Amino acid sequence: MAAVRIENLVKSYPGEKGRPGKTAVDHVNIEIRHREFMVLVGPSGCGKSTTLRMIAGLEDISSGAIYIDDRIVRGESKLGLGFATQEPTHPSQKQS
């Protein structure tokens, strides 16, 4: 396992045909210590999966920095990292 530190992480998507773009992740700061278990929780569309995809190197970073064991990483897809998502399991979370 490794320590992960995220500083001012931003992911923005450009707008089309003169329209304003969308910021999916806006200046996120997280520190995950070695052997620590961490969960991202939030509503649909708040940037959880995008943040995880940037940490895993599957999504480009617009700005900010991701450090793994104090080594800055940016757009590296062979870091040996992964993540899992879960469908809602509680009846109040399921949408019809």
Can you characterise this structure?
With 96 residues, the chain is mainly β. It has one domain (4-73): P-loop containing nucleotide triphosphate hydrolases (Rossmann fold, 3-Layer(aba) Sandwich), CATH 3.40.50. Helix content is 8%, strand content 31%. It has one helix at residues 48-55; strands at 4-13, 22-32, 63-68, 71-73. It has a four-stranded antiparallel β-sheet, covered by helices on one side. The longest helix is centred in the middle third of the chain and has 8 residues, at 48-55.
Helix-strand makeup class: mainly beta
- Proper CATH architecture: 3-Layer(aba) Sandwich
State the helical fraction: under 10%
Helix count, per DSSP?
1
The general outline is globular
H-E order? EEHEE
Strand portion: 25-35%
Pick out the low-confidence regions: none
Record the SSE blueprint.
Layout (H helix, E strand, L loop, with lengths): L3 E10 L8 E11 L15 H8 L7 E6 L2 E3 L23
Antiparallel strand pairs: 1-2, 1-3, 3-4
Summary, kept brief:
With 96 residues, the protein is mainly beta. The protein has one domain: Rossmann fold (3-Layer(aba) Sandwich). Helices cover 8% and strands 31% of the residues.
Question: Which labels suit this protein?
Answer:
4 strands; mainly beta; four-stranded antiparallel β-sheet; globular; 8% helix; 96 residues; 1 helix; Rossmann fold
